[in-house]
Amino acid sequence: MERRLGLVLRAVLRIASSLLYIMGMSSSTDALPWDLYDAYLFDIDGTLLHCTDAVHFFAFCEALTALAGRPMNLEGVIAHGNTDVGILRDALLLAKIPDDSWRPRLRETQAFMCRFVEERIGDFRTTVLPAVETVLLHLRARGAVLGVATGNLEGIGRLKLSHCGLLKHFVFGEFSDAYEFRRDVFGGAVKKARRLAGPEARICVLGDTPEDVRSAKAHGIAKLNIWRW
Ligand SMILES: [Mg+2]
Asked: Could you say which of 13, 42, 94, 128 would form a disulfide bridge with 20 (CB–CB 3.0 to 4.6 Å)?
């Protein structure tokens, strides 16, 4: 059974990404088997699902255009491994828009983006990566606490998860609404995981970018394994 689930996980990871990182932290220095952690923090995009629509992208373009007062898009901005707030910041920095002209409008911009995406949910094209649901069900059956740690704004991340039926598996999440940097999202997520699973909880992080690794390490979560395909 364990071997079969191990193979299932490999299948998930193979299709999920060409490179997927699994990191774990426990009181022991020994790495635990992948399904024996107390709590799991999953990245969303590229780890649990793929979005092949451009709804989120157009939400950025519209928000940036409103903030800059001229047409803008994400050209030249690294979105992978970033946060939604960080993507806005990097795009506006690149366009030389002064901080003090947009930061006071950040909260209303976030609300605008969430509304923009929600109104276009009919255009969503989300694909759950194969066997992800099997893995999540297995971890839940073992009593693990499952959460998401994502750079998405909450209103957008929740829509992606609910659109493809994954939201029900997670009991908590940390999103980027209050954070500009991914490592701070992870910090919030680790705190929530410990509140739910106990102060000594062994935590496993799954993500698909080097920034996920850096962010996990910033909170004492040592690298457990890197899957390369
Ligand atoms: Mg990702």
From this structure: 13
Residue that is last in its domain, among 68, 101, 123? 123
In terms of phi and psi (left: phi > 0; alpha: psi -120 to 50; beta: otherwise), the region of 165 is: left
* Same domain assignment for residues 90 and 32: no
Range of the domain at 198: 2-50+126-228
Say how many Å lie between the CA of residue 212 and the centre of ligand 1: 8
Centre of ligand 1 to C-alpha 213, Å, is: 11
Whole-structure pTM value:
0.87
Q: Are residues 32 and 131 in the same domain?
A: yes
The pLDDT tens digits along the chain (229 residues) read: 445 555 545 544 444 444 566 666 654 555 678 888 999 999 999 999 999 999 999 999 999 999 999 999 999 999 989 999 999 999 999 999 999 999 999 999 999 999 999 999 999 999 998 789 999 999 999 999 999 999 999 999 999 999 999 999 999 999 999 999 999 999 999 999 999 999 999 898 888 888 888 888 888 776 555 554 3
Are residues 144 and 40 in contact, defined by beta-carbon separation less than 8 angstroms?
Answer: yes
For residue 27, how far is its CA from the centre of ligand 1 (angstroms)? 27
* Secondary structure (3-state) at 143: coil
Asked if residue 89 and residue 130 are part of one domain, the reply reads no
Do residue 71 and residue 106 come from a single domain? yes
Helix axes 106-119, 84-94, angle to 10 degrees: 110
